[in-house]
Amino acid sequence: MLYTYRTQDERYRIYILKKAGHGCSSIARLMKLHKSTISRELQRNRDEREYRPAQAHRQAAVWRRTANEVYCQ
Predict the structure, then answer these.
(1) I need a labelling partner for 72 at 20 to 30 A (CA). Which of 19, 23, 38, 48 fits?
(2) CA 67, CA 49: separation in Å to the nearest integer?
(3) Could you read off the pLDDT of 17-26 as tens digits, one per residue?
């Protein structure tokens, strides 16, 4: 399976589109991604109120480092 990480620009684009009132399907269509990708991104990277793209990008970097440490020993 090919897996690609979201870039910081993609995360900010998701944030802007969500703030503009677009739903997951609409954002996915505009960005040419699967709607479940958008849904997971929004669900995984939110605080109590809303999606946080900068926080999401920092956390993704931590997850990538941790995954490499755990699986590449």
Answers:
(1) 38
(2) 28
(3) 999 999 999 9
